[in-house]
Amino acid sequence: MRSLSMRQTIRDVGDRAGVSVGTVSNVLNAPHLVSAQTRSKVLEAIEELGYRPNRAARSLQARRTLSIGYRLPDPGPGTALDVFLHQLVGTATDHGFAITLFAPRAGEDDLDTYLEVIRSGDVDGFVLSGTNYDDPRVEMLSGLGFPFAAFGRADHASPFPWVDVDGASGTAQAVEHLSGLGHRRIGLVAWPSGSESGDTRVKGFRDGMAAAGLEVDPELVLRTENGFERGRIAGLRMFKSANPPTAIVTVQDELGFGIMTAATELGLRPGRDLAVTGFDDTAAAAFMWPGLTSVRQPLDEVARVLVDLMVHRLSNPGEPPQTMLLHPQLVVRDSTLGTGR
Amino acid sequence: MRSLSMRQTIRDVGDRAGVSVGTVSNVLNAPHLVSAQTRSKVLEAIEELGYRPNRAARSLQARRTLSIGYRLPDPGPGTALDVFLHQLVGTATDHGFAITLFAPRAGEDDLDTYLEVIRSGDVDGFVLSGTNYDDPRVEMLSGLGFPFAAFGRADHASPFPWVDVDGASGTAQAVEHLSGLGHRRIGLVAWPSGSESGDTRVKGFRDGMAAAGLEVDPELVLRTENGFERGRIAGLRMFKSANPPTAIVTVQDELGFGIMTAATELGLRPGRDLAVTGFDDTAAAAFMWPGLTSVRQPLDEVARVLVDLMVHRLSNPGEPPQTMLLHPQLVVRDSTLGTGR
DNA sequence: TTGTAGGCGTTATCAA
DNA sequence: TTGATAACGCCTACAA
Questions:
Q1: Sequence-ordered alpha helix ranges (H) in chain B
Q2: How many Cα neighbours within 13 Å face the side chain of B115?
Q3: Which of A8, A124, A287 to mutate to test the interface with B (most CBs of B within 10 A)?
Q4: What is the largest CA-CA distance in chain B?
Q5: Which nucleotide has the least CA–C1' distance to B56?
Q6: pLDDT one-digit tens code per residue, A229-280
Q7: Which residues 147-206 of B have a C-beta within 8 angstroms of A?
Q8: What are the domain boundaries of chain B?
Q9: Residues B281-288, mean pLDDT to the nearest whole number
Q10: pTM for the complete prediction?
Q11: Is the dihedral of CA B79, B85, B87, B92 positive or negative?
Q12: What is the pLDDT of residue A4?
């Protein structure tokens, strides 16, 4: 068992191997410059001392931190942060990088938070999530030439590296599933237009309806903000209308929960009297009764690719940015299964 | 708009303010040594240049990494990781520290993961969560003398810094609430004995029952592992018994969800025909219908105190370790409100 | 093929 | 109260 108590320096290794610090450094960073004999002597000393290069010193001199910054999303229901972070950390570790988390101070502007991190030199680049049309972070980082990779497409003039999940495919799958069950009056509860992910999901709904040969009744398309209560209100309104839907597609699980609740309040039973789908496959979706059929995004793969893109970009700054579109999958549960026909 | 294109150094600030680097450093780290006039001149220059100290340089000179390691818990439902992490990061930032995440590689032993991080010298200490009786991490880190602060008491021979939430108070509150509603046959679904947190919650249940003058019927105390399905099975068994409970306390939300599901399957309506309580106040608890009454742990405060303890320990290694016991609060929802009497 | 020296941005020491 | 200077541990020229 080697000593963990004291950090060894490159000088200690040199002394032990009877060579200079430069030679030890070369063994580590440019082995071909060192004779085989010296090299093995040095490696042996490294092993014996349990030497590890000091990260701060290396980073100071190289002006790279070997770490990637991620701004923690604000806490709230409906995120699957754990899966995403786990994969982010795992992949980063594989590449020799660390993930450095940060978050805005109370009342601090989001962009300033990124700037602070850049200025203190804590990270080599950022992984962004939740990007949107005209995302100011994309604007700013592109402008500064500071490396990043984004989860979400946005629409910046110049290309940048991103990964996205095809939301249109998700809602289209939901419609296909519902029409396959025999539903013909299918409603949609979506966000107000103006968000990239929201609009894409609406488009998928329309495409899916067209593909199934179904009409979209404008009365059955509601736009509202995020959240359980909004979903509940939307549900009440739809179910009380003259010609209510038999199935409702939503763009978020919470909206779906709200709709199921509204139905229950009106004496309808979700999963039998009507079908509901969500989006994100949050943990809660599996614990509802009935479970909420929902569109699952491959967050682990998103995280993996994000780090890959980021690391690749750092070592190949000249190359054109790469992008990747992944596909979601509908997870079918009882909120739809027993309905239709 | 100040220039961001190039990182500013302490020397740039000094030049701009017409003082030496040492003075700038003093303004930052020992303001009392600097005259008010000089200080404001320097602060102005800092502001104008958007200067932030370089963390690698600072770390190199301080011979500390200025970062705290946290082993990401394995993904799974039922955690409120986002709140915890947010506060961890926020508090660490306040102290000039960063949070460095890590996770075991596939198949890697948990302890080895910690050892590897120690050897790489990337962190000054750890924040531990989910500690238990004879926690091997506590043993190991105590043995090595490597700094840490734990969420959870464990029972190591020598004292160490920890924060914990009084689980007994949580289950006792649940019982008090239920007995206040008029319930007399109250059941418990808990984990097998052997975990610190589990045993504490059971104790709270018994204490609460005693305080309410109620008998604990051994038939109504079930021990099972974590999870929705386990809860469902336990619920079915309880409700089918000769003399079923009218209320059930659980030590985890998922168990509670399972029990509500079991009840529904048997034609009972949770929140009217029987009461259920959970533990952790996970996001899903609020989205159930009815919402699940649950014990909320002050995770944000836990995280804050953990970092405070850790940082304090790093700068005062000699002092005896501090500890802190926080109190949970019952969040009442419809799974209990309409029941009893 | 190896050794020496300068500098990365800070803080600490000591002199002015 | 302020300024100069020497570390901190590493890497990279460049010299030997």
A1: 10-17, 21-29, 36-49, 55-62, 81-94, 110-120, 136-144, 167-180, 196-211, 228-240, 253-265, 283-287, 299-315, 334-337
A2: 15
A3: A287
A4: 87
A5: C9
A6: 899 999 999 999 999 999 999 999 989 999 998 998 899 999 999 999 999 9
A7: none
A8: 64-165+299-327, 167-297
A9: 83
A10: 0.90
A11: positive
A12: 46
User: Which candidate, A130, A27, A117, A134, places its Cα nearest to that of B50?
Assistant: A117
Q: Do the domains B167-297 and B64-165+299-327 match in fold?
A: yes
Which H helix or E strand runs over A140?
helix A136-144
Phi, psi of A218, rounded to the nearest 5 degrees:
-55, -30
The C-alpha atoms of residue B326 and residue B146 are separated, in whole angstroms, by 25
Backbone angles phi, psi at B103, to 5 degrees: -155, 150
Residues of A in contact with B86 (CB under 8 A): 72, 74-75, 103
- Nearest CA to B200 among B246, B154, B259? B154
Which residues in window 21-80 of A are less than 7 A from strand C by Cβ?
21-23, 26, 33-35, 37-39, 57, 60-61, 63
Altogether, the residues listed in chain A come to a count of: 341
> Taking a C-beta distance cutoff of 8 angstroms, is the pair A135, A71 a contact?
no
Kindly write down the DSSP assignment for every residue of A185-223, as one continuous string. Answer: SEEEEEPPTT-HHHHHHHHHHHHHHHHTT----GGGEEE
Q: What percent of chain B has pLDDT over 90?
A: 80
**Residues in chain A within 8 Å Cβ distance of B51:** 119
Going by their DSSP bridges, the two strands A186-190 and A247-250 should be labelled as parallel
Q: Angle at which helices A167-180 and A196-211 pack, to 10 degrees?
A: 30
Inter-axis angle of helices B36-49 and B10-17, nearest 10:
120
Rounded Cα distance between B279 and B80, Å, is: 12
One of 1.10.10.10, 3.30.450.180, 3.40.50.2300, 3.40.710.10 is the CATH number of B64-165+299-327, namely 3.40.50.2300
**Cα separations in angstroms, B7 against A48, A121, A245, B49:** 39, 8, 58, 9
* Statement: residue A332 has pLDDT above 70: yes
Rounded-to-integer distance, Cα B326 and Cα A272, Å: 45
Tally of helices (H runs) and strands (E runs) in chain A: 14, 12
Give the span between the Cα atoms of B100 and A125, in whole angstroms: 16
Q: Under a CB-based contact definition with an 8 Å cutoff, are residues B50 and B12 in contact?
A: no
Cβ atoms of B280 and B328 closer than 8 Å: no
What is the SS3 assignment for A23? Answer: helix
Q: How many CB pairs under 8 A join A and B?
A: 157
The DSSP annotation for A257-316 comes to: HHHHHHHHHTT--BTTTBEEEEES--HHHHHSSSPPEEEEP-HHHHHHHHHHHHHHHHH-
Residue A101's closest CA among A92, B8, A109?
A: A92
CATH class of B167-297: alpha beta
pLDDT at A1 over 80: no
- Helices A36-49 and A21-29: crossing angle, nearest 10°? 90
Measured on CA atoms in the order A73, A292, A177, A245, is the torsion positive or negative? negative
